[in-house]
Design goal:
CATH architecture of the largest domain: 3-Layer(aba) Sandwich
Largest sheet: 9 strands, mixed
Number of domains: 2
Radius of gyration: 20 Å
Strand content: 25-35%
CATH class of the largest domain: Alpha Beta
Number of helices: 9
Oligomer: single chain
Structural class: alpha/beta
Strand order of the largest sheet: 1-2-5-4-3-6-7-14-13
Shape: globular
Order of helices and strands: EEHHHEHEHEEHEHHEEEEEHEE
């Protein structure tokens, strides 16, 4: 533990590069080359994603924020008195600020993120704005095993905005929700943003914007592997590809090889055919009933759900 300010503590459980190397080598050795979307979020990737959230085409962040702005009193009443707020991921502080301002009983805020610099930067900013709240910044992978530095008292609520839950495979969602339920006691809660199924054109534009920022975000993964793993990807020989897979109910993001080529990561060599892709991200979309049924199966009781008028996005409050 390291003290950064009077009301902020840092805990570093960062994934070592060898684990990253092992996972990426395994993914690129598979029949369908795949890399976990969590590796998109180094410091530059986090910056690019924040830029994505401000794009006109990218409706999820804007729509979710609108729900929080318009429904914050209802959300506050539904959640009740909270002692500890745990956030999976620590991106833009706009949504978390709405909760920190309105959860009057809140004593500690625990953001968890694998992007160390981005996490500590946003935590320091929040610590200065909310000096009465203890902030425990945890650098680590919230999808893996973690021991959180929580006070053993008061109501706990997990906050998971941005429809990041959509990045998980269906089986992973079940495991993730059940693991989250084990962190909570009876009466605790889970406040989560979930993107809703809608027309294909709206979905695909959200993940392939006209300014090319989402493409830069995806291609930054190659830059990161070159820098951190000593790989020799030529970013100009790959292109961003995003489309909606209607059968599976998900947006898919890929990096498509523009030619036959070989790439080295240390002593490992990988061959790419022209048109072959690295599958870098999925974003599953759920109807409200679909997600509530899933939550019930994983140990939660759906309590409240809020949407925008057009029902593009949903915010669910689940009780343990």
């Amino acid at each position: 533990m390291r003290l950064l300010e009077n009301n902020i503590q840092s805990y570093d459980f960062y994934i070592e590069k060898e684990n990253m190397r092992e996972e990426i080598v395994k993914g690129l050795s598979a029949t369908v080359k795949t890399i976990s979307s969590k590796y998109l979020y180094d410091h530059r990737g986090s910056e690019l994603f924040e830029m994505i959230t401000e794009l006109e085409e990218y409706y999820p962040t804007r729509t979710e924020m609108k729900i929080f702005n318009e429904k914050i009193q209802e959300i506050t009443m539904a959640v009740g008195d909270v002692h500890t707020l745990i956030e999976y991921g620590s991106g833009s502080s706009n949504k978390i600020k709405a909760l920190l301002h309105n959860f009057a009983s809140l004593k500690e805020y625990v953001p968890i993120d694998i992007s160390r610099d981005f996490l500590f930067q946003s935590s320091l900013e929040l610590a200065m704005q909310f000096p009465h709240i203890t902030i425990k910044a945890v650098c680590g992978d919230y999808t893996g095993p973690l021991t959180l530095p929580l006070e053993p008292k008061g109501k706990k609520v997990i906050f998971f905005p941005g429809s990041t839950i959509g990045n998980f495979e269906p089986v992973e969602v079940q495991n993730f929700l059940m693991k989250s339920a084990k962190l909570l006691d009876e009466g605790d809660g889970f406040l989560i943003g979930v993107d809703i199924k809608k027309d294909i054109d709206t979905l695909e534009k959200a993940y392939d914007d006209g300014k090319g920022i989402t493409a830069a975000f995806n291609l930054n993964l190659l830059t990161r592997m070159n820098r951190e793993l000593g790989a020799n990807f030529n970013e100009e020989q790959f292109e961003h590809l995003a489309y909606y897979n209607e059968k599976k109910g998900r947006i898919e993001m890929h990096l498509e090889s523009q030619c036959d080529q070989q790439v080295l990561i240390g002593n490992y060599e990988f061959s790419f055919r022209e048109g072959e892709t690295i599958h870098t991200e999925n974003s599953y979309k759920y109807s409200i009933d679909q997600f509530q049924t899933l939550a019930l199966e994983c140990g939660f009781k759906p309590s409240k759900v809020w949407t925008d008028d057009a029902e593009k996005f949903s915010v669910h409050y689940l009780e343990k």
